[in-house]
Specification:
By secondary structure, the chain is mostly helical. It contains 4 helices and no strands. The relative contact order is 0.07.
């Protein structure tokens, strides 16, 4: 070994790589903590709203609580995606597809509820939005089905 060559332990590239990996791990942990804290806070809010019947009655409270719980599910799925990325060092598509399904269902419920009170052209626009969201939900569901089916297939040589 020549005096000018560096050993593998002190190679600047290896040191930079280890430093970036450590920084990446710290960011993943912080992201997990923030997602978990957000989910816990939203869950507490949903429970408080249910107990105190915040809003304009039981139906409005149940709708608000469902909206909040769907956000909790979105945060939990994102937490799952970050955790999988943290542990497996690869980005997985399934958690993001699940977040898309949950978010689409949430928007579909909100839009359908708002469409009940509309008439004329505004109702037509809401109906088109419900149709588009339903199509998006179908595409996401088929994508999720195909992804899970592919993951169950044996590895090709």
């Amino acid at each position: 070994m020549t005096p000018s060559s560096s050993s593998p332990r002190t190679d600047p590239t290896a040191l930079a790589d280890r430093g970036l990996r450590a920084a990446e791990q710290v960011v993943y942990v912080l992201a997990c903590l923030l997602l978990l804290a957000g989910a816990v806070v939203l869950l507490a809010k949903a429970g408080y709203d249910l107990v105190t019947l915040e809003g304009d009655g039981v139906t409005e409270t149940a709708s608000t609580m469902l909206d909040t719980l769907l956000l909790v599910f979105v945060l939990i799925e994102l937490l799952s995606a970050v955790r999988a990325t943290f542990t497996e060092h690869q980005l997985l598509a399934e958690p993001f597809l699940l977040v898309g399904v949950i978010a689409t269902i949430k928007e579909l419920v909100v839009t359908a509820n708002e469409a009940r009170d509309k008439t004329g052209e505004s109702f037509d626009e809401a109906a088109i939005e419900v149709g588009v969201l339903s199509g998006l939900l179908l595409v996401l569901a088929v994508s999720l089905f195909l992804l899970r089916r592919k993951e169950r297939e044996p590895e090709e040589a």
